[in-house]
Amino acid sequence: MNLTVIGTGYVGLVSGTCFAEMGNNVTCIDVDKKKIDALKNGTIPIYEPGLEPMVKRNIESDTLHFSTKLSKHLENCDIAFIAVGTPMGDDGSADLQYVLQVAKEIGKNMVQPLIVVDKSTVPVGTADKVKETIQKELDLRNLDIEFHVVSNPEFLKEGDAINDFMKPDRVVIGSNDNKSTQKMRTLYSPFFRSSMDRLITMDVRSAEMTKYVANAMLATKISFMNEVANICELVGADVNKVRIGIGSDSRIGYSFIYPGSGYGGSCFPKDVKALKKTAQDHGYKADLITAVEDVNDKQKMVIAKKVVNRFGNDLKGKKIAIWGLAFKPQTDDMREAPAIYIIKDLVKRGAEIQAYDPKAMQEAQHFYLKDVPNITYFNSKYETLNGADAMILLTEWKEFRSPDFGELKKQLNYPIIFDGRNQYNDQMMEDLGFEYFQIGKK
Ligand code: UDX
């Protein structure tokens, strides 16, 4: 099929490239000319395992193209995906200005029947707004061209996005038109080799809602476990054991119940807020969803509090090493990363920070921690520890999983570790002579 994907951010670029990999003819569009020029040469703006070789391969096989001109690429297009950003507005709702701008552009330029797909995460009712916007432009042009708006939310995890797209747990297609549903099924069927059961079709509004509910549910699991971890500490229980104890119940399951320093990233914080706002707009006070967010905000500061409990409020003269800045491993993304909040708090109390992350240091230096003083960045995990009074682990990168603890002791002034991701066995740490603080166990 001929596909146009509008927006070459994380979602658009991964989706477009994977569709091309399946043999479709894909053009990815973006208004950012510099980005498009770079992409044409196979240079990708984000770190995502496996994406760069796939982009290059598909450029070479002529299945993947990049352009800034949407008008030109609607001429011969079967399906147009809207994958532009929906940043959080001031009131917590998703800002639809970019989505609706693209809809307008489509309406101004489309010349043949088209399926328009909302791929961006958008609140319930957005497909109707996209439809109205396109129709208005067609009316202005006195044209009667058939088009349908379909909702097809993405469920990609950063760091594993290629895998999630190529071998999806499920694909949700929200469509109120049978022919469009059929076409979308045809597009996605190569991704389901054995069974099509996981290609789930429904009405547009339910599909829009599904995306928010999936993320809110996962965020709820995390906040629930973080709250449990805090209670465990108070009553003298070990959350790591409790986690295993409850996960063995198949109704609960082991996944997504790891306590830590709170969830971050581009999706959970934004989507939880947006769902709360949607409920509020309809006169409903979403108490549980509000609590999920509150617990997460507090959880981000739990490790900083442990540092203060150990060293006191005044951290002047203290050097603290940080292992991990990204909101999770396998990404350079620092959006809403707990590291931002923790480092700012420690610096405010006078601490000097020595930081290392395998991928996110550029993001930290140039954007998220740009204006924060007293941070020095190092190129290796051991160098970062040199002369520090303690180390805080904030992202569970594999390279932090089983470090040379002898080297850690040699480099640190004091063998003190605050673990925001519960990566090590506390008995082992004690035997090795570390003062080891973790989440959910005193
Ligand atoms: C998430 C969803 O998983 C994905 O389906 C959706 O499309 C986008 O949002 P992502 O933001 O890439 O993906 O990250 P994910 O791997 O889900 O982790 C989110 C956050 O939860 C991270 O900060 C992670 O550290 C935290 N987390 C996850 C926990 O604290 N505990 C867990 O048990 C699992």
Molecular structure report:
With 442 residues, this protein is α/β, with parallel strands linked by helices. The chain folds into three domains: 2-202, NAD(P)-binding Rossmann-like Domain (Rossmann fold), CATH 3.40.50; 212-298, Orthogonal Bundle (N-(1-d-carboxylethyl)-l-norvaline Dehydrogenase, domain 2); 300-438, NAD(P)-binding Rossmann-like Domain (Rossmann fold). It is 44% helix and 14% strand. It contains 18 helices and 14 strands. It has helices at residues 10-21, 33-40, 51-60, 70-73, 97-109, 126-140, 161-166, 178-188, 204-235, 239-247, 268-281, 287-299, 302-311, 338-348, 361-368, 381-385, 405-411, 426-431; strands spanning 2-6, 25-29, 64-67, 79-82, 114-118, 147-151, 171-174, 199-202, 319-323, 352-356, 375-377, 390-393, 416-419, 435-438. It starts with a strand and ends with a strand. The structure holds uridine-5'-diphosphate-xylopyranose. Uridine-5'-diphosphate-xylopyranose binds at residues 154-158, 215, 218, 222, 256-258, 260, 263-265, 267-268, 327-328.
